[in-house]
């Protein structure tokens, strides 16, 4: 693997970063305070063609890979948008991948052009109240009814549901059998209409790499005892260590993305990158908050939003513990623990 980015990949990062930075800190502060969806931000990315980055050109996309997608989302986060900006953009990249890889030509034609154009948004429904991280135990069922399927069940943390017209939905088409050697058999992905007349949607009131740069700038400018606080190793070293850990997590993330694009196994690298990135991201924002001191809690400095948001990555899209289980079993060949 050549870790050097191509000219085209560098251009992706540069151009996305410029577009994302055109939405300043004030924009994200207002969205956070009002708990509003960043409609204008997503619209700008749709008009620029970025939502179709990983969708094949034959369906209106750019036909690029997951390396480019990672570069795009890193640039979004680093602009100050954080998870608030990256989350709605990533729904145009990752949830459509099963459709791109396994969907029929008719399904691709029906769904992918709209996602690429920004006129159709796709939610993702897997987690259930009684299943948690044990996906094999989901209770949502799908049975044939007439010319289609009838789906019955409940989902929770259905990402992007409020702003989507379609949902990528995981359901059981055969009953769960505890003694079966492959407990995930019988699970099927459906692309379904997210019709308010057929489903009940309830919004959950929840806690809602940009932080490190902001903290470093503050440490250079903030003067206490007649010297910049960044001159003190108690401030400088945690920020430097956070940078080092972020760089390591980012390198492994790119490796996992490259392996995926090459069609090679990447489960170990992807899970390891997830674990390291979630830890490094939280440590970086926590070090940033500590650097700002009491001002770190003030919304006007934006660090508290980034600190709140990045904590989610220790839980989603899969918990740290489940990612470590994968590594323990698949890489270290240790006995299954759950």
Task: Please tell me about this protein's structure.
49% of the residues lie in helices and 9% in strands. With 338 residues, it is mainly alpha-helical. The protein has 3 domains: 7-117, Butyryl-Coa Dehydrogenase, subunit A, domain 1 (Orthogonal Bundle); 122-193, Butyryl-CoA Dehydrogenase, subunit A, domain 2, CATH 2.40.110; 210-331, Butyryl-CoA Dehydrogenase, subunit A, domain 3, CATH 1.20.140.10. The strands form 3 sheets. Strands 1-4-5 form a 3-stranded mixed beta sheet, with no helix packed on it. Strands 2-3 form a two-stranded antiparallel sheet. A two-stranded antiparallel sheet has the order 6-7. Helix 9 (267-292) packs antiparallel against helix 10 (303-310) and helix 9 packs antiparallel against helix 11 (320-331). The protein is globular and about 75 Å long. The model has no long low-confidence stretch (mean pLDDT 92).
């Amino acid at each position: 693997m050549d870790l050097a980015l191509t000219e085209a990949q560098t251009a992706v990062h540069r151009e996305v970063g410029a577009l994302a930075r055109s939405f300043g800190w004030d924009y994200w502060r207002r969205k956070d305070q009002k708990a509003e969806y960043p409609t204008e931000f997503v619209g700008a990315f749709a008009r620029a063609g970025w939502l179709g980055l990983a969708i094949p050109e034959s369906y209106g996309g750019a036909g690029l890979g997951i390396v480019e997608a990672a570069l795009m989302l890193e640039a979004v986060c680093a602009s100050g948008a954080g998870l608030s900006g990256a989350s709605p953009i990533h729904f145009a990249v990752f949830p459509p991948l099963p459709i791109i890889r396994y969907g029929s030509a008719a399904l691709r034609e029906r769904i992918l052009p709209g996602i690429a154009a920004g006129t159709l948004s796709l939610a993702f429904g897997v987690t259930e109240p009684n299943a948690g991280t044990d996906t094999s135990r989901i209770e949502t069922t799908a049975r044939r009814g007439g010319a289609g399927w009838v789906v019955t069940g409940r989902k929770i943390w259905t990402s992007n549901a409020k702003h989507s017209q379609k949902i990528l939905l995981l359901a059981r088409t055969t009953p769960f059998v505890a003694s079966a050697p492959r407990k995930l058999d019988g699970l099927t992905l459906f692309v379904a209409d997210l019709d308010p007349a057929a489903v009940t949607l309830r919004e959950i009131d929840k806690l809602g790499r940009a932080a490190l740069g902001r903290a470093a700038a503050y440490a250079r400018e903030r003067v206490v005892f007649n010297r910049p606080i960044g001159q003190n190793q108690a401030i400088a070293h945690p920020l430097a260590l956070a940078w080092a850990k972020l760089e390591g997590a980012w390198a492994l993330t790119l490796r996992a993305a490259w392996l995926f694009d090459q069609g090679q196994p990447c489960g170990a690298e992807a899970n390891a990158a997830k674990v390291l990135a979630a830890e490094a991201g939280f440590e970086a924002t926590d070090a940033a908050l500590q650097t700002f001191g009491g001002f770190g809690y003030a919304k006007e400095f934006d660090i508290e939003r980034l600190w709140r948001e990045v904590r989610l990555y220790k839980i989603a899209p899969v918990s740290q513990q489940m990612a470590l289980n994968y590594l323990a079993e698949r890489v270290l060949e240790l006995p299954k623990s759950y």
